[in-house]
From TrEMBL, chain A:
The lineage of its organism: Bacteria, Bacillati, Bacillota, Clostridia, Halanaerobiales. This is GrdX protein. It comes from Halanaerobium congolense.
From TrEMBL, chain B:
GO terms for molecular function: oxidoreductase activity, acting on X-H and Y-H to form an X-Y bond, with a disulfide as acceptor. Transmembrane segments: none annotated. Pfam families: Gly_reductase. The active site is at 242 (schiff-base intermediate with substrate). Keywords: Pyruvate, Schiff base. InterPro entries: Gly/sarc/bet_Rdtase_B_asu/bsu, Gly_reductase_pB_sua/b. This is Glycine reductase. It comes from Halanaerobium congolense. It comes from the Bacteria.
Length: 121, 428
């Protein structure tokens, strides 16, 4: 558990998992690109980068769990690249808008429950 | 295991002084029902509405759709693990109010989707517009958290369906169907010359608004297991799952899984339908590996020659789907996969987030990114403001006249991956 890192832009993750290593980034795209960079540095995905069914880009918050490994994990690389491709596809049709605080918090809760269920198992 | 489903045709629903079924009409005593479903002190208000096919009505945001039923003979009861005990279901006799449904709606999170239009072009995209629906709109106290709210609404829906189902207890069914599932050794011996076919039933299991329950157990906690198809037909699997609305299995869909019905149809003629393996779609890759390993192992233990695999949802479950496909194929088990697509509004993007050469027989339920304009309806039940781009994250736009331009992913059941939908491809 102590080796895990969570790449996230979700403030609720930062609050909830103080004991874990959190890499807090500014925005959704950074979560994905940072995760991809780590995969290239011999980290592997522990949680799926498209977890949950709120569409990529619609939920502005995302957290991805990674763990160190000994060599490049091709499955992780393939998975994160496919996820980035899907994110870009959805971004194209997604109207950028400012959400209210309540809606932001609901989206954060959805992301938090996904990570909670990942860490529980 | 033998299950009789007694179907009682419902052609109308009305509020009345007494809850009963008479002459294909379901009469509902509103006060009595409200007393039963409103007993939870966390609930502040419940509105009941009856809507019929063809009505100028929009229901939004839909959380679940449930078919009212009652157990009349044999062990167990409806909605095991929630309304009834943990007793096994799938045998005996169950009565069904065919043509009636309970639809739940409520504000669990600030962004919402899940539209059922009862008329107009939207109605053609949702399978639930053809039923007489009792819509239950439930509000809870302000301090109730999202998880608790989902649970309250889920229970209100199940209690309502269970209450209505009781009206069917002593009614003579219009149709009686019998389904049997034998112990595996006997089943295999029945048709030795036919290929043994199983059904791999993937259940969404990731968290708030993404959960499924099996006999009351959260599916993310299970290892893949064997089930009799009659257990599923008898309500052993329930939905807590509603985003995205297009490809999530409502409880109604679990109760009426078309893949199971179709597999029964040619059982003993084209193939030997051996049974169902249920599996989950969890968040971690380790869980995905473990569950797909178990699925393939169970299929091998059953001696399957082929399997139909249905997905629930999109994105990360594509990884589960492909893992199941690969691992079944590696054991020499042929697969047919059922999924839907997010191929972009122009249909030109890659449809799934994962792929593999073993996935060489795939059925699609449609492209969820297609855009449709839904005209205004005379009446909106629920919270149309959720469709507004300003209020929520809903990927569509609400016009001043009440019309909505939206991807069909927001329409409940439009690309259902069990084939419980209306989209089809035809060659002329």
């Amino acid at each position: 558990m102590k080796d895990l890192v969570i790449i996230t832009n979700n403030p609720k993750i930062k609050e909830k998992f103080e004991e874990l290593k959190i890499d807090f980034v500014d925005n959704l795209s950074d979560v994905y690109s940072k995760s991809r960079d780590l995969v290239h540095q011999d980290w592997k995905l522990m949680s799926h980068p498209l977890a949950g069914s709120v569409k990529p880009a619609q939920n502005p918050y995302r957290s991805i769990i990674l763990a160190p490994t000994k060599k490049l994990d091709f499955y992780s690389l393939n998975t994160i690249e496919n996820a980035i491709q899907k994110l870009n596809q959805f971004k194209k049709d997604h109207k950028k808008r400012e959400y209210s605080q309540k809606i932001k918090e609901d989206y954060q809760v959805i992301d938090l429950t996904l990570i909670n269920s990942a860490l529980k198992n | 295991m033998q299950l009789e489903l007694g179907k009682i045709k419902i052609e109308d629903i009305q509020f009345a002084a007494e809850t009963k079924v008479f002459d294909s009409t379901l009469f509902i005593n509103q006060e009595e029902l409200l007393e039963i479903i409103g007993e939870d002190s966390r609930i502040t208000n419940i509105n009941l509405d009856i809507v019929h096919p063809g009505d100028s009505v929009r229901i939004i945001p839909v959380k679940d759709v449930i078919e009212p039923r009652v157990k009349v003979k044999g062990p167990g009861g409806v909605f095991p693990g929630f309304i009834s005990s943990e007793e096994m279901v799938g045998s005996g006799r169950t009565h069904v109010l065919k043509g009636a449904a309970v639809v739940t709606t409520g504000e669990i999170v600030g962004f919402q989707e899940g539209i059922i239009d009862m008329s107009g072009p939207g109605a053609e995209y949702t399978p639930f517009s053809r039923f007489h629906n009792l819509v239950v709109d439930c509000d809870v106290k302000e301090n109730i958290k999202q998880h608790e709210h989902e649970e309250i609404l889920r229970m209100v829906g199940l209690k309502t369906a269970s209450y209505l189902g009781k009206a069917a207890k002593d009614v003579e069914p219009d149709e009686l169907e019998t389904y049997e599932h034998k112990p595996f050794v006997e089943a295999a011996a029945d048709y030795p010359s036919l290929p043994k076919v199983g059904y791999v039933y993937m259940l969404q299991s990731q968290g708030l608004l993404h959960d499924t329950y099996v006999y009351g157990v959260d599916a993310k906690e299970i290892l893949p297991t064997l089930m009799s198809p009659t257990e599923i037909m008898d309500g052993a699997i329930l939905s807590g799952n509603c985003v995205s609305a297009c490809d999530k299995n409502a409880t109604y869909v679990h109760q009426n899984n078309p893949v199971i019905e179709e597999l029964y149809k040619y059982h003993g003629e084209k193939y030997n339908f051996m049974g169902v393996i249920i599996t989950n779609e969890n968040v971690t890759l380790a869980d995905k590996e473990r569950s797909s390993n178990f699925t393939a192992k169970l299929a091998e233990m059953l001696g399957l020659d082929a399997a139909v695999v249905s997905e629930e949802g999109f994105g990360n479950p594509d990884a589960d789907l492909i893992m199941n496909s690969k691992k079944l194929a590696a054991k020499g088990i042929k697969t047919v996969l059922i999924t839907d697509e997010y191929a972009g509004r122009d249909g030109a993007s890659q449809s799934l987030a994962d792929a593999d050469p073993s996935a060489d027989a795939v059925v699609t339920a449609g492209n969820a990114n297609e855009v449709i304009t839904l005209p205004p309806m005379e009446k909106v039940i629920g919270h149309q403001n959720f469709a507004d781009v300003i209020a929520g994250g809903f990927d569509g736009s609400l016009e001043a006249d009440g019309s909505i331009s939206v991807e069909i992913q927001a329409i409940t059941g439009s690309t259902n991956e069990l084939g419980f939908n209306n989209l089809t491809a035809r060659i002329y």
